[in-house]
Amino acid sequence: MTKALRRGTAAALLALGATQSPALAQGLMERLWDDVTGRQPAQPAPAPAPRGAPPPPAAQAPAPAPPPPAPTAQAAPAMPYVLPRQQSVGETMTLTGNAMAVNTVRLVARVPGYLERVHFEDGAFVRQGDLLFTIQQAQYRAQLQQAQAQLQLQRAALTHAQTEVTRYTALVRRSAASQVEVDNWVYQRAAAEANILAAQAQVDLAQLNLSYTEVRAPFDGQMGRHLIDPGNMVGASSGDAVLGEIMQLDPIYVQVNISTQQAQQVRANLDQRRMTLEEMQRIPVEVQLPGETAFTHRGTLKYIAPQIDAATGTLLVRGILRNQDRTLLPGVFVNVRLPMGRTLQSALLIPQRALQEDQGGRFLMVIDTNDAIQKRYVQLGPVVGAWQVATGGVNRGDRIVVGELWRASPGLHVTPQPTTLPE
After folding, report:
1. Pro residues bias located where (predicted)?
2. What is the pLDDT of residues 364-422, one digit of tens each?
3. In 59-86, which positions are buried (b, 16+ CB within 10 angstroms) versus exposed (e)?
């Protein structure tokens, strides 16, 4: 407290004592003096005990806090596991390929004319023989009628020539006509027969051209978009002859390119088994679409190229499979599993649901003999349903963790709990 403040406070206290409460002013002055001198205020003495009262009890030390409870042992968590399955498995290879339409046809105008009508919606599925495009037909109907008329004319000429041959032959017998007359009508008859053949050909051609004015689906498939609108001239030149495109989607091809080493192995296995073309085309092919977890689409082998592609060093292999629901579209990338022709005897299979992956590779968790979790890296082979062949890192009696994987950390002691999984 500053000196000026202290002087002002003292003057105010003196005025208070002189006018209102001398006792209050005295107490405040003592506090002010203690503040200036730094003296501790005196503690009031305890009031004397009444005569005959017992002495106050001595102060007791606080009771010590109770010790914390001893930690209880936590039970080891239950951990479901399965044992590896052992069975013979055909060795396979899984490659990335793509789907391809069995047939793709560019529909063209085979006769010139104005496009009158488009009979389908873009992208529609059509049946074999469905009418797709109509080209102006009046001109070709007229040409057909003209050819038919010419045919009738030649038939009439043949009938007349035949009649004259008969008549002049009779006259020659009676010496009423010369043989030259007969020979002339024989020639006329032969010419009429030839003209009939030519006229019939013109009729056939006119009918064919008329049929070309109707463009129909060559097979069941899906249409693309139409490329020319009605009212345009088509078929006059090669540049504007394509009207649209149709693709056959059921069945559908899947094709992959295998390496030279794999190709040699496949060829050797096929040659060793002495398979005919019909037997080779019964070899199964399995397909997995993007986003799927299993190879649910199955077909058969269709074609193996006779030679290695020198540009890529690969061999083309093609399979064919049904595609009734049209889930496979041309161009989509797929995983294709092909048999290698060899069988792995007594292979160990592990459930795919137990597999995890980190920077070190694929691994799984196993329960050791001390009921503790161990992390085990594995080498994998072909997939068999929901299981996969383990070619390394797994022993026959390993207890493989298949549940509670989020809590299965290495070193954790657990209570093993056997379980079963679907095939």
Report:
1. 43-71
2. 999 999 999 999 999 988 777 788 889 889 998 899 999 888 888 888 999 999 998 87
3. eeeeeeeeeeeeeeeeeeeebbbbebbe
Q: For residue 20, give both structure tokens.
A: 């209102």
Identify whether the C-beta of residue 323 lies closer than 8 Å to the C-beta of residue 374.
no
Strands 284-288 and 233-234: unpaired
- For tokens 């020639």, the residue is 187
CA angle 231, 232, 234 (to 5 degrees): 130
> Which residue from 222, 192, 215 is spatially nearest to 326, judged by alpha carbons?
222
Handedness of CA 261, 267, 269, 272 (dihedral sign): negative
**Is domain 118-215 given the CATH code 3.40.50.360 in the classification?**
no
| Selection from 133, 97, 412, 119 nearest residue 258 by Cα | 97
| Among 386, 375, 371, 383, residue whose Cα is nearest residue 421 | 386
* Maximum distance among all Cα pairs of the chain, rounded to whole angstroms: 195
Handedness of CA 82, 86, 90, 93 (dihedral sign): positive
Distance between CA atoms of residues 103 and 111, nearest Å: 23
Count of C-beta atoms within a 10 Å radius of residue 11: 10
- For the chain, the residue count is 423
Give the Cα-Cα-Cα angle 262, 263, 265 (nearest 5 degrees).
65
Instruction: Name the nearest CA neighbour of 390 among 60, 79, 86, 24.
Output: 86
Query: Token digits for 77?
Result: 């968590």
- Cβ(29)–Cβ(41) under 8 Å? no
Do 106 and 221 touch, CB atoms closer than 8 A?
no
Tell me which residue of 398, 405, 293 sits closest to 349, measured CA to CA: 398
According to DSSP, residue 413 is labeled B
DSSP state of 352: G
Q: What is the pLDDT of residues 21-44, one digit of tens each?
A: 555 556 655 665 555 555 555 555
| Every domain of the chain and the residues it spans | 80-88+345-418, 118-215
Architecture of the domain whose range is 80-88+345-418: Beta Barrel (2.40)
- CA–CA gap between residue 401 and residue 423 (Å, rounded): 17
CA–CA distances in Å: residue 121 to residues 128, 212, 225, 299: 16, 21, 8, 31
First to last CA, the chain: 91
Instruction: Work out the number of other CB atoms within 10 angstroms of the CB of residue 161.
Output: 20
